[in-house]
């Protein structure tokens, strides 16, 4: 049983990989532990969003990913 965590944008560069399989079920604290300190620090920033099973979470701390779910880490979009 696994959840796929997908790193996007600069978070992919920090992680050094596109995605990572982690044990399911996965909650917010489990996600922070699974991604390491540097990325966990970024995730705590309100401008970084988390999507689970294709839906952006209004409250990241409410994350509860199940087996087969994809959790995408969405950094802020820059541009002008």
From TrEMBL:
InterPro entries: Beta-grasp_dom_sf, Mopterin_synth/thiamin_S_b, ThiS/MoaD-like. Gene3D superfamilies: 3.10.20.30. This is Molybdopterin synthase sulfur carrier subunit.
């Amino acid at each position: 049983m696994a959840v796929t965590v997908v790193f996007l944008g600069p978070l992919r560069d920090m992680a050094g990989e596109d995605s990572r399989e982690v044990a399911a079920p996965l909650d917010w604290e489990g996600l922070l532990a699974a991604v390491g300190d540097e990325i966990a620090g970024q995730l705590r920033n309100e401008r970084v969003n988390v999507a689970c099973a294709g839906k952006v979470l209004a409250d990241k701390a409410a994350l509860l990913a199940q087996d087969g779910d994809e959790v995408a880490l969405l950094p802020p979009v820059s541009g002008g």
